Amino acid sequence: MGTGPELPSRKHPRLRDYDYSRNGVYFLTICTRNRAPILSEIVGRGLAPAEVRLLTAGRIAAEEMENLPKRFPRVWIEASVIMPNHIHLLLSLRAAGASPRPTDGKDSGIVDVMRVFKSLTTRRWNQWNGTQGRPLWQTSYHDHIIRDDNDFLNHWSYLEQNPARWAEDEYYVCTTKGTGTTWAFLKRSRRG
Asked: 3-state SS string over 83-137?
């Protein structure tokens, strides 16, 4: 039946047979649709020191990220960085009893958290733009399960340094507007 060109097989982004509602720390990367640089701007051409300027979509994303622990009591945002066309975050899922916030009894995992985050930010972005149903994000996201303290510190450091290394980033998109590029870093204190 193959009259057309073969489509490339898509690699499933999640680890097979892994329970993404397990307690742990996850490094997540969420990209904008078509890698459009609409989240933030980096003044300084992606070199240290760089000035952070969130754009409207980035401000919406930052606000919704702040609300994730309210919506999902097991969630703690350890650190995040909002780049021009993607977001990196270190997100912890903790046992229900480990959180001072009341839980709703649901065992939400990373998949649910990302679905809600992407849905809410997209809805608000479309409202702001006066549009309906336009995707803000790529369909999926990338994840890495943090294995130990050293892995955590390496990813934390990557988040901190990412804006100054924007021009070297695999998601780098050069813009012609203003001074060029974009980023924002939001840092949380690590709870002991």
From this structure: CCCEEEEEEEECCHHHCCCCCCCCCCCHHHHHHHHHHHHHHHHHHHHCCCCCCCE
As its CATH architecture, domain 27-187 has: 2-Layer Sandwich (3.30)
Compute CA 179 distance to the chain's CA centroid, rounded to the nearest angstrom.
24
Q: In the prediction, which pLDDT does 42 show?
A: 83
Sheet hosting strand 86-93, strand order edge to edge = 142-145, 24-31, 86-93, 75-82, 184-187
Residue found under tokens 């229900």: 96
- Identify whether the C-beta of residue 13 lies closer than 8 Å to the C-beta of residue 19: no
The domain locations on the chain are: 27-187
At residue 77, the 3 state secondary structure works out as strand
Provide, rounded to the nearest whole percent, the portion of the chain with pLDDT above 90. 53
Asked whether the bond before 37 is cis by omega within 30 degrees of 0, the reply is no
Determine the residue type at 41. E
pLDDT of residue 18: 57
d(CA 23, CA 32): 27
**Angstrom distance (rounded) from CA 166 to CA 178:** 16
Q: Is 186 left (phi over 0), alpha (psi -120 to 50) or beta?
A: beta
User: What is the rounded radius of gyration, in angstroms, for the C-alpha atoms of the chain?
Assistant: 17
pTM for the predicted model, two decimal places: 0.76
